[in-house]
């Protein structure tokens, strides 16, 4: 890895994209691109955006080892890509409380353990990825039984629509963090 000129502690910026250098991948290689029309309907549109953000987060983590995923790139923050995967698994789990009204135990024990206890351990990385996939699937299934976007759900009477928009916002915000974290880890840039 080439180091950034004048900053030997930071990697040189680079991208795999050749068509648009500010993108993560060329359009033909980007799994988020679709050749068809956008989905019809409100729920399908929400699902499409959420799916793209979920995929973006995982793409930002691809190709990194456990140490790189656990690296806290912007001290004193405890934020890391691995911590973000764990955090989003925890958040998905919490959203089910909003849907069903039944509180669930924290996945990682205590508040902020998702970030604080993220370590450079391959078994922890695999467990975090499995946790995220499982919790996403369970939350998706819980929401599937509420197809009316205006329906009010158990916790605080939040509407399905508001919960779906909040999920998109949560992933979008953390994908922005992932952009910066990944660039600090190995210099790779792109939206």
From TrEMBL:
<dbReference type="InterPro" id="IPR007061">
    <property type="entry name" value="MST-like"/>
</dbReference>
<feature type="compositionally biased region" description="Basic and acidic residues">
    <location>
        <begin position="1"/>
        <end position="15"/>
    </location>
</feature>
<dbReference type="Pfam" id="PF04978">
    <property type="entry name" value="MST"/>
</dbReference>
<dbReference type="InterPro" id="IPR034660">
    <property type="entry name" value="DinB/YfiT-like"/>
</dbReference>
<feature type="region of interest" description="Disordered">
    <location>
        <begin position="1"/>
        <end position="42"/>
    </location>
</feature>
<protein>
    <submittedName>
        <fullName>DUF664 domain-containing protein</fullName>
    </submittedName>
</protein>
């Amino acid at each position: 890895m080439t180091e950034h000129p004048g900053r030997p502690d930071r990697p040189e910026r680079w991208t795999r994209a050749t068509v648009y250098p500010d993108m993560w991948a060329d359009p033909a290689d980007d799994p988020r691109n679709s050749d068809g029309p956008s989905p019809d309907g409100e729920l399908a549109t929400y699902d499409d955006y959420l799916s793209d953000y979920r995929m973006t987060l995982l793409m930002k983590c691809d190709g990194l080892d456990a140490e790189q995923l656990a690296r806290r790139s912007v001290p004193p923050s405890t934020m890391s890509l691995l911590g973000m995967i764990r955090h989003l698994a925890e958040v998905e789990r919490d959203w089910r409380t909003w849907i069903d009204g039944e509180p669930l135990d924290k996945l990682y024990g205590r508040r902020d353990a998702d970030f604080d206890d993220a370590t450079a351990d391959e078994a922890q990385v695999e467990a975090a990825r499995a946790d995220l996939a499982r919790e996403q699937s369970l939350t998706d299934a819980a929401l599937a039984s509420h197809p009316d976007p205006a329906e009010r759900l158990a916790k605080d009477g939040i509407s399905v629509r508001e919960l779906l928009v909040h999920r998109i916002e949560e992933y979008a915000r953390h994908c922005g963090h992932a952009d910066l974290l990944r660039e600090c880890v190995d210099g790779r840039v792109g939206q």
